[in-house]
Write a structure and sequence with these properties.
- The chain is α/β, with parallel strands linked by helices and 565 residues long.
- It has 23 helices and 18 strands.
- The strands form five sheets. The protein has a ten-stranded mixed sheet with strand order 7-8-6-5-9-3-10-17-4-18, with helices on both faces. A two-stranded antiparallel ribbon has the order 1-2.
- The chain is globular, with a radius of gyration of 30 Å.
């Protein structure tokens, strides 16, 4: 032992802490061992200490031998760690850094939120043809790991389909899923599950989604699957009489369209369409009618992880807090902050799953920020501006409905009193005569539905001292949050495409390997025609198949259904 001590002291020292093989060495025994000039020191040790030291020395000899053998090439380099078994991509559509601050202040300004604890960097969001992206191009950057033009759904600038991470995962044998609060055919879920020259082609996206072998799809958008004929003619959003629900059943899908069915037995594959269009804002949601995002997410995690292929190969799941974006478009802070709270709860549930199951990567980020949310605004009193250093979350807490909901209520029932309805829904009881007149004027202008929504939003935003710069998107970077193996490689500022590529690599997938197959399956994508439905017999073709003519594009921007951005 003494002859080998000087050679192995470095290797042995870490082994000789306070405990060795269940035997505790006291301070005197440790001192004797660490001063081995004479045999007297070793002889003075207790029997248990001698045994512990002997074991430690043997271990050290083995370590030294392994090191020498490895240096001589006797041992091959260890294989790389296996790819992550599960990847969960979460997109908080339209959610920017100010939204996180507002949500924290609304909940408890001194306490960190679930996302706060997992922030690792940010994402750069511009698209291939615009410094401010839309959701389709923003989602495609994550799904295909490439930038493209605004309105493109998993399509490159040359109009060719780009393979997505979901498609690659499905072909590898992983279970796959989509959980959103928008229509399931909306821009973000579409960019993972379909290919279209323009995001407005949701009728086409629905048709494609049921052919992709996706195991779980849960969200809104029933209207895109119902035929525009017979009993559903007044409900359908489709331009034709095709029954995509019937096609989904033929493809093996279980169809779920209400809360009772959602709470009942489910099997894979399942298509959950829990609202005709988008699901309700969280502030308006009736828990007896629609499940919350956290509930649909937990259901998807249960189904995917419990499936045979999920257990064997793992899964890829996209989760989107879709309606944060819609609240931002409306400049509605009360709806916005509750959408973020619902997303925070969902993120916490996903982390709980990931921690319990292990070998799971969770990434959460946004496609862009919406609305230009600012916390504090200029206030005018008798024409004089002041700049209070505050914003008031208590004003948001008093609201019980979204401004979009109240606008629909006021428009649909002429007998409702404006001031009373605003007091009941927004908690505002001090409306001035000029404010009531402005709301009534917007209420009478039925051609401009969102004019009334915007007017109501300004009432509550002004009182809360919250500002907005636009009803569209902004170009700021968005926060990046992550958990799981390898996520340290995306710390810092990232291009959105780099985040997409990281997830592809984490699963050990190759998008290029399936590119030819995807392009063959989705060859000859129909051009987008803003003023006529497909197969109208006119043989019309737009000047630009991606966005239509300049006139059509301008008309679409003017009448766009809110939330499409």
């Amino acid at each position: 032992v003494h002859g080998e001590f000087s050679l192995m002291q470095k290797e042995v020292s870490p082994l000789l802490d306070d405990h060795h093989g269940g035997v505790t060495l006291d301070a005197a025994e440790l001192a004797l061992f660490k001063t081995p000039e004479t045999k007297t020191g070793c002889a003075a040790l207790s029997v248990g200490a001698k045994v512990a030291i002997g074991v430690s020395v043997v271990v050290a000899l083995v370590l030294v031998s392994v090191g020498i053998a490895a240096g001589a090439g006797a041992f091959k380099e260890s294989p790389p760690p296996p790819p992550a078994l599960n990847v969960i991509m979460m997109i908080s559509d339209g959610f920017g850094p100010s939204g996180e601050t507002l949500a924290r202040a609304f909940a408890n300004k001194a306490a960190l939120l679930p996302l706060d604890k997992r922030i690792i960097g940010s994402s750069i969001t511009y698209s291939a043809n615009a410094i401010v992206t839309d959701s389709a191009a923003g989602a495609t950057a994550y799904s295909c790991a490439t930038k493209t033009y605004n309105y493109a759904v998993a399509v490159l600038e040359n109009l060719q389909p780009c393979p997505t991470i979901l498609e690659a995962a499905q072909r590898r044998g992983l279970a796959t899923g989509l959980v959103v609060t928008s229509r399931i055919t909306h821009a973000t879920p579409a960019a993972y599950s379909a290919h279209a020259l323009n995001r407005e082609q949701e009728w086409l996206i629905a048709e494609q989604q049921i052919t992709q072998g996706i195991d779980v799809m849960i969200g809104g958008g029933l209207c895109e699957f119902q035929p525009n004929s017979g009993s559903t003619a007044g409900l359908s959003c489709r331009p034709d009489s095709r029954d995509v629900l019937a096609s989904a059943v033929a493809a093996g899908y279980q169809i779920v369209t209400n809360l009772t069915e959602f709470n009942g037995p489910m099997r894979l594959p399942v298509l959950g369409l829990l609202a005709e269009s988008h699901m309700d804002f969280e502030i308006d949601r009736d828990p007896n009618v629609q499940p919350a995002l956290v509930n649909t997410t937990r259901k998807a995690l249960e189904l995917l992880s419990g499936s045979a292929k999920g257990a064997e190969k793992g899964f890829f799941l996209l989760i989107e807090g879709s309606r944060i974006d819609h609240a931002g478009h409306n400049n509605d802070p009360a709806a916005h902050v509750r959408e973020v709270a619902a997303y925070q709860e969902t993120f916490a549930a996903v982390l709980e799953f990931a921690a319990a199951h292990g070998n799971t990567i969770v990434v959460s980020t946004s496609d862009h920020e919406t609305g230009g949310l600012t916390l504090a605004r200029t206030v005018y009193t008798n024409g004089t501006a002041s700049y209070p250093y505050t914003y008031l979350t208590s004003v948001l807490a008093a609201a019980s409905h979204s401004c979009e909901y109240l606008a629909g209520l006021l428009r649909s029932n002429a007998a409702l009193d404006t001031a009373q309805t605003v007091a009941s829904g927004l908690g505002i009881t001090d409306m001035t005569a000029s404010e009531i007149a402005a709301i009534d004027a917007a209420r009478a202008n039925v051609a401009d539905f969102y004019g009334l929504t915007y007017a109501l939003s300004n009432l509550i935003s002004y009182r809360a001292r919250i500002g907005w710069t636009t009803h569209g998107h902004t170009g700021q970077d968005v926060n990046l949050y992550a958990f799981g193996p390898g996520t340290e490689t995306i710390r810092g500022v990232n291009q959105n495409t780099a985040i997409g590529q990281f997830l592809v690599d984490a699963l050990g997938l190759s998008l290029e390997a399936i590119a030819a197959e995807v392009r063959a399956k989705f060859a000859n994508l129909p051009p987008y025609n803003a003023t006529s439905w497909p197969n109208d017999g006119e043989g019309r073709r737009d000047a630009d198949p991606r966005i239509g003519t300049a006139e059509q594009q301008a008309a679409r921007e003017a009448v766009r259904e809110h939330g499409h951005n």
